[in-house]
């Protein structure tokens, strides 16, 4: 077997375009997941039992079904009820909804890790439930929440490769298009792996850097 370096040189800019799409999708999906996940995580701490049940049901569904099936549900099932999404936005929403389920649990666990004495002390000076949550518990839970959240972003980037099945022209799909023309799977898939490895390594470094700079309460 001869390694085709010429093809690798041609493929690098083509895969770069797919990589940029992957970054755009993951950034938007993580933003959606963080906002929705934080809201769900806080809702899980609500005193309203029906609201907590809804959150538990959503989180259980997300954690108990494959990401690929969730992508199919967004892309193929939503048109049945009249919601037609382009491939790009279907991918963003599917990944974002998936991330939200995990981030909700991260937020709930992070807030739950704070000593109960903190809330009791705040309550003793007349603070209401919402004030205790936003001014006492959430700031202190930040250090516990950020590392697993960045790990979720890493998982999201790796999971984005599944979007190739609905023809989103992200990194993996770009590689498949090149392979279909040049019939060189080894070189292209190795190059795709290096793109993902570099991206994940950068995110892992950022996670460690951010964790070191978080305040200690």
What key phrases describe this protein's structure?
8 helices; single chain; 217 residues; mainly alpha
Model description:
- The protein has 217 residues and is mainly alpha-helical.
- 80% of the residues lie in helices and 0% in strands.
- It has helices at 5-43, 49-64, 67-77, 87-112, 116-124, 129-159, 171-182, 185-213.
- It is elongated and about 75 Å long.
- 30% of the residues are buried.
- The mean pLDDT is 88.
Q: How helix-rich are the residues, as a percent range?
A: over 70%
- Secondary-structure-based class equals mainly alpha
* H/E element order: HHHHHHHH
| Main sheet characteristics | none
Report low-confidence residues grouped into runs of 5 or more. none
**How many individual β-strands?**
0
Topology:
Elements: H1 5-43, H2 49-64, H3 67-77, H4 87-112, H5 116-124, H6 129-159, H7 171-182, H8 185-213
Helix pairs in contact: 1-4, 1-6, 1-7, 1-8, 2-4, 3-4, 4-6, 5-6, 6-8, 7-8
Structure at a glance:
The protein is 80% helix and 0% strand.
